Each structure stands twice: as C-alpha cells, then as structure tokens.
Amino acid sequence: MGVDTATQAIKYAREHHGTSQVRFETIDKLRTEGSFDLAYCNGVFHHIPPTQRQAAGALLYRALAPGGRFALFENNRTWS
Predict the structure, then answer these.
(1) Rounded to an integer, what distance in angstroms lies between the CA atom of residue 18 and that of residue 53?
(2) What is the pLDDT along the chain (80 residues), one digit of tens a residue?
(3) How many Cβ atoms are within 10 Å of 6's Cβ, its own excluded?
(4) Do 9 and 20 have their domain in common?
(5) Is residue 2 located within the same domain as residue 40?
(6) How far apart are CA 74 and CA 69, in angstroms?
(7) Short-list 39, 26, 49, CA closest to 69
(8) Engineered SS bond to 2: which of 15, 24, 25, 47, CB 3.0-4.6 Å?
C-alpha cells in the first residue's frame, strides 16, 4: 500500500501502478492499525511541519503489527 496526502499523486499511482496486490490510498483512509510488518518512509518527514511530526510518527507506529519495523530515509539536509 502506498499512502500520500496528495490526491493527484494517489490518482496517478492508482492509474499507472495499481494492481490487485498494490493499492494506493490517501492518508485519511489509512485505517489499518496493527496490520503492517514494514512501513518505509522516503524523503517525507522534512515536508511535515515540525509541530506535526510527532503525530505522524505515532500514526506510523499504530499501523505497525507487533514486531513490525519502521524504516526512515530522509535525503534532505535541512531539518527544522
């Protein structure tokens, strides 16, 4: 599952990359607590306002299954 806040990006991803095994949803539709073995976040957190980053991390944590892993790759050098 790919998740984003940008509806146009989700629409594009669904049309070009969606399959019966790969789906894309907007973040407001992410209601799958405890169901992911892995959450991978690439180059996203620097776009989240600093005051909202803790809530974003908590959302990711809740989405992980027991023993699940969270991988963060942040390629931007300008963290606030």
Answers:
(1) 28
(2) 999 889 999 999 999 999 999 999 988 887 666 789 999 998 888 888 999 999 988 988 988 999 999 999 988 766 55
(3) 11
(4) yes
(5) no
(6) 16
(7) 39
(8) 24
Enumerate residues 6+ apart whose C-beta is below 8 A from 36. Answer: 1, 63, 64, 65, 68
C-alpha to C-alpha distance for 80 and 31, rounded to whole angstroms: 29
Residues 6+ away with beta carbon under 8 Å from 68 = 36, 37, 38, 39
DSSP string, 19-76: -SS--EEEGGG---TT-EEEEEEES-GGGS-GGGHHHHHHHHHHHEEEEEEEEEE---
63 C-beta neighbours (distance < 10 Å), count? 19
Judge if pTM exceeds 0.85. Answer: no
